[in-house]
Amino acid sequence: MNAVIEWAGTHRRALQAAALALAVAGCTNTSVSEDLPRGAAAYAAIQPPGAEAVTEYRIKPFDILTISTFNEPGLTFAKIPIDAVGQFSFPFIGRVDAAGLSPHQIEMEIKQRLDARYTQNAQVTVFVASASGLLFTVEGDVKKPGAFEYTGETTLLQTLARAGSPTETAKLSEVVVFRVIDGQRYGGVFNAQDIREGRVDDPIIFPGDTVVVGYSAIKSGWREFLSIGPIVNAFTRF
């Protein structure tokens, strides 16, 4: 009997500790982003001057392109590397100066040169298979935090998806985007749930951005509380 009483006392203390942890979690669930703008002000805070002009990626040395020409398998390549001076070779047209051009501009360049020498109305598509040195970072309560390659226009929700999506304890109303503009660091707080439901726009993420997904101490404390459910039930039955 003493052993049973000791067992019950131990688990009562465990239950009390869990309840206390839950209460503390609720009290300490303050936002680390309280001083950052939210709502419309957040969109304005991280909007770089002339952002509309730079959302299309510009090719750099050591990027890798995927180039497809409709109905021309001999002119379709999964991986074409850009060399150190920003050029690549393409059949029938020779060297192409790609550095500083957008994928669409390269499409037009290849099309014009192919049409002049080989085809009629070539349909060329260019994608960036791998971008050199352009990264954005996702931190906080996501399943796979880390640095990711920027391969073209990317929204906040797409960014979160690449990081494995937020965890079950993530605070979706506290997703912070940090951006350096003209040497100054800016930040804004976004509500990922509102974005998912289409109530607000999905902001564009740029190379060099850092996305931090907030942590909900209340959710975490409640999950810890529920994790001792079998112990609580055993104690109540006793």
Write the layout of secondary structure elements.
Blueprint (H helix, E strand, L loop, with lengths): L1 H26 L12 H6 L5 H4 L9 E6 L7 E5 L5 E4 L3 E4 L5 H15 L6 E7 L4 E6 L5 E4 L4 E2 H7 L7 E12 L2 E7 L1 H5 L7 E2 L4 E6 L1 H11 L1 H9 L1
Parallel strand pairs: 6-12
Antiparallel strand pairs: 1-2, 1-5, 3-4, 6-7, 8-11, 9-10, 9-12
Describe this structure in words.
The protein is α+β, with helices and mostly antiparallel strands. It contains 8 helices and 12 strands. A hairpin with a 5-residue loop joins strand 6 and strand 7 (146-149). The longest helix is centred in the first third of the chain and has 26 residues, at 2-27.
Give me the oligomer status: single chain
Strand order of the largest sheet: 7-6-12-9-10
* Order of secondary-structure elements: HHHEEEEHEEEEHEEHEEHH
Shape summary = elongated
Radius of gyration: 26 Å
Poorly predicted parts:
1-32, 228-238
Average residue pLDDT:
77
Helical segment count:
8
Tell me the strand percentage band.
Answer: 25-35%
Number of beta-strand segments? 12
Main sheet specs: 5 strands, mixed
